[in-house]
Amino acid sequence: MMKLTEFPDAASPRRRQILEIAARLFARNGYRGTSIRDIGEQAGVLGGSLYHHIKSKDALFVELHNAALDAAERRIADAANRHVAPWDRLAAAVSTLVDIQLDPDSITLPLMNDFRDVPEDVQRQLSTRRDAFEDLFRGLVDALPLPADIDRSIYRNLLLSLINSAGDWYRLGRMTPSEIAAQINRIFRHG
Amino acid sequence: MMKLTEFPDAASPRRRQILEIAARLFARNGYRGTSIRDIGEQAGVLGGSLYHHIKSKDALFVELHNAALDAAERRIADAANRHVAPWDRLAAAVSTLVDIQLDPDSITLPLMNDFRDVPEDVQRQLSTRRDAFEDLFRGLVDALPLPADIDRSIYRNLLLSLINSAGDWYRLGRMTPSEIAAQINRIFRHG
DNA sequence: CCTACCGATCGGTAGG
DNA sequence: CCTACCGATCGGTAGG
């Protein structure tokens, strides 16, 4: 449950600290809702001073986004690979992604959700990495014995967008993330 | 398929025209992504001139949001009420909401999706109207003969967030909105 | 509906 | 890492 090294490739401890601060702010307030001055404030310096560590706000966001997907992809693949039956493999992946998305301290993932908040040229830089992430789920879904009248591409998109937007309505207390995941797996299990 | 009077309570034709322009821009570019100057430009005037017709950007957005939910709620209730069996009623509601969300010319609904893009005090103004909208689906879901291990509140939230985020991945061509709706209804039909 | 502006905020930079 | 700025953009207003 504890995160130890979120950004292993950070080049210096100070830079890693800045990356972690920035990731938390982006996750909480979105791309446009987070200013360079906000990040500087939490890091104890003025906004302009950050440009010693980063090239631009865009480049910073892209770096955080890709590192977050790397970490998520590793955790999800590990969880799926502890099982062999197709439905079990998907259920493990869903449960892990739900955990990541609903963790209130998650630095990792809410970055995925802000796609349309981001400038268009940044979107283009992110989309390759996102496509690769989706391939993980494509493989899991393609292995399912689904009824013939369910389209696997639609099924995968529905499932992913549902999980990625779960943070919008989830409020702590009533149910745990793993109970939410269990409900999702029940609804999406067919045939 | 044609929209005739999107804003029946507009007070003047010019004001209605401005509301329609603003709704389209908010739907396309989000709350923060739409400036008062953008709206003025499309209306053929300078941004400041709009303040003869509106009180503030916030009040404009709230008005558009509530009018959009009024129109959506009417369409969805009408569609559901053409049926009696619970699963048919839900399917009709889902299909109508999907149509609204995926219509590329829709003024009506993508306003719902930008919740976290909007300032907090505006969020508070919108939430009452949204809760009432959700009650429509609450009634439809509560009438379903669902398996006992599926939580109706979670089921409803998952279904609504899934439909509301469908526009994020849907691209025209491969499938029509009603085919998407049919897939959703298949996946969410149980018991 | 325009002119002309306000105070605030933004990403980013030069020069030290 | 700071000082001191830049050009751009924002919502909104006074006065006509």
> What's the CATH H-level homologous superfamily of the domain at 57-188 in chain A?
Tetracycline Repressor, domain 2
Order of helices and strands of chain A: HHHHHHHH
Query: What overall form of chain A do the CA principal axes indicate?
Result: elongated
- Which structural category fits the helices and strands of chain A? mainly alpha
Main beta-sheet strand count, sense and barrel state of chain A: none
Largest interface: A-B, 31 and 31 residues
End-to-end Cα distance of chain A, whole Å, is 34 Å
Mean pLDDT of chain A: 92
Can you tell me the CATH architecture of the domain at 57-188 in chain A?
A: Orthogonal Bundle
Strand content of chain A: under 5%
Radius of gyration of chain A: 18 Å
What's the tally of helices of chain A? Answer: 8
Q: Roughly what percent helix of chain A?
A: 55-70%
How many β strands of chain A by DSSP? 0
**Text of the CATH class of the domain at 57-188 in chain A:** Mainly Alpha
Question: Can you tell me the residue ranges of chain A where pLDDT is under 50 for at least 5 consecutive residues?
Answer: none
CATH topology category name of the domain at 57-188 in chain A: Tetracycline Repressor, domain 2
Account of the protein in words:
Two copies of one chain form a homodimer. The first copy, chain A, is mostly helical. Chain A has a domain at 57-188: Orthogonal Bundle (Tetracycline Repressor, domain 2). In chain A, 62% of the residues lie in helices and 0% in strands. Chain A has eight helices and no strands. Chain A has helices spanning 13-29, 36-43, 57-80, 86-102, 120-142, 152-164, 166-169, 177-188. The longest helix of chain A is centred in the middle third of the chain and has 24 residues, at 57-80. Chain A is elongated. Chain A starts with 12 loop residues before the first helix and ends with a helix. In chain A, 37% of the residues are buried. Chains A and B meet through helix 6, helix 7 and helix 8 of A and helix 6, helix 7 and helix 8 of B. Chain A binds a DNA duplex (16 and 16 nucleotides) through residues 35-37, 45-49, 51-52, 56-57. Chains A, B: InterPro entries: Homeodomain-like_sf, HTH-type_TetR-like_transc_reg, HTH_TetR, KstR2_TetR_C, Tet_transcr_reg_TetR-rel_C_sf. Chains A, B: This is AcrR family transcriptional regulator.
